[in-house]
Amino acid sequence: MPQTRVLIVDDSALARRMLSHVLGSDPSIEVVGAAPDPYVARDMIKTLNPDVVTLDVEMPRMDGLAFLEKIMTLHPMPVVMVSSLTQKGADVALRALEMGAVDYVAKPTIGIEDGLSAMSGEIVAKVKQAARAHVRPLSGQPTQQVRITGTFASSERLIAVGASTGGVETLQRFLIPFPPDAPAILITQHMPPVFTERFASRLNDLCAVTVTQAEDGERVLPGHVYIAPGARHLELARSGANYVCRLTDAALVSGHRPSVDVLFRSVARAAGANAVGIILTGMGNDGAAGLLEMRRAGASTVGQEEASCVIYGMPKAAFECGATEIEMPVERMPSHVLHCCQATVRRAIRV
C-alpha cells in the first residue's frame, strides 16, 4: 500500500508526540519527521521530501503563516494547519487557507493529549485527503477579479452553495464578482463555529454583496449572502411571501452539521425552479443527494470541474449521481449563475 509521508512542524513536544502517534497508527501513513520550528523543518523538507506537512500556527523564530508563505511560493506542497479554536486562531487559519493550505485541524487549547486522541479519525482523514489535493503556487500578486455589472435583483430567485475542503479560497473567488444587487446566496461551508463568524466578516470586507453569518428567522434578501453557522444546519423556509433562514441543531447529516444536503433539500422544497445550486470543492459526498433533489425540482445545478478543485470529492459525487447539469471552473460560475437567475423559470423535471 502506498504510504503518505508526513512531516510534523510544532513547537510543542507533546503535540509532536501525539500527532506522530495518531498519524503513525494508520498503516497508510508514515511520519518521516517532526520539527520544533520552521528553520529545522525547512532542512527536513529538503532532505525528506514529505507528501504532506502539518504546520502549527504559533511558533517561535518564525510563525506558521510566514513559513506557509515560503512553502507555497518556493516549494508548493499540501499543508494542513494546526490552529487553536479561538478567534485569533480562526483569523490565522482562514488566512492560511486563503494562502493555499489545504485544511486545518482545530487543536484543543486545554487537554491537548486527550483532545488530539479524540480527533484522531479527523486528523488522519484530513492528512490522507491533503496528499491527493491539487496545490497551486502562491502568486506574489493578488488576483484581480472583475465585478459583474447590471440589474439582477429579484426577491424570488436565489442561489444555494455547498463547499468543504478548499472552499475558503474558492468561495472568495466565487463571491467577489457578484454585484451588490445580486440574488440572495445561502452557503454551507464545513467549518467550526468560531471560524464561520470570522469567515463571513472577511468575505464581507472583500465583496460588494453583504455577507453575514445566518441568523434564525431572518428574512432572505437580494444583495445578501448568508453563511451557515458552524455546528448548526442552515435551511431555507417560506414565511408568507418571503424566504427566511432556519437554523437547527438536528443530528449530523452526511457526517456533517452544517450539512450541504440539508441546505439543498430545503431549497428544493421552498424555492424549486427559482433556485440555482452550486457544489464546490470538498471531500466526501455531502450535497450530492440534495443537489439532485434541487435538479429534480427544476433548479439549475452546477458543479466545480475537477481541474480547479482542491479536492474533487463532493463535485464528483454530484456528477456521478446526475445532480449537476454542467461542470465549470469557479471563475466562470458568477456570470453563468446570474444568467440562470435572469432566465425564465423552468418546470420540475425527472432525472
UniProtKB/TrEMBL annotation:
Transmembrane parts of this sequence: none
A Gene Ontology BP annotation from the UniProt entry: chemotaxis
Catalytic reactions on record: [protein]-L-glutamate 5-O-methyl ester + H2O = L-glutamyl-[protein] + methanol + H(+); L-glutaminyl-[protein] + H2O = L-glutamyl-[protein] + NH4(+)
Annotated keywords: Chemotaxis, Cytoplasm, Hydrolase, Phosphoprotein
Identification of the protein by name: Protein-glutamate methylesterase/protein-glutamine glutaminase
Entry note about domains: Contains a C-terminal catalytic domain, and an N-terminal region which modulates catalytic activity.
Reported function: Involved in chemotaxis. Part of a chemotaxis signal transduction system that modulates chemotaxis in response to various stimuli. Catalyzes the demethylation of specific methylglutamate residues introduced into the chemoreceptors (methyl-accepting chemotaxis proteins or MCP) by CheR. Also mediates the irreversible deamidation of specific glutamine residues to glutamic acid.
Residue span, Response regulatory domain: 5-122
Lineage: Bacteria, Pseudomonadati, Pseudomonadota, Alphaproteobacteria, Acetobacterales
Enzyme class at the top of the EC tree: hydrolase
Major localization class: cytoplasm
Similarity comment: family membership: Belongs to the CheB family.
Pfam families listed in its UniProt record: CheB_methylest, Response_reg
GO cellular component: cytoplasm
GO molecular function terms listed in the Swiss-Prot or TrEMBL record: phosphorelay response regulator activity; protein-glutamate methylesterase activity; protein-glutamine glutaminase activity
Record's comment on post-translational modification: Phosphorylated by CheA. Phosphorylation of the N-terminal regulatory domain activates the methylesterase activity.
Localization annotation: Cytoplasm
Entry-annotated residues carrying 4-aspartylphosphate: D56
KW Heme (keyword) present: no
EC number(s) per entry: 3.1.1.61, 3.5.1.44
Keyword Mitochondrion: no
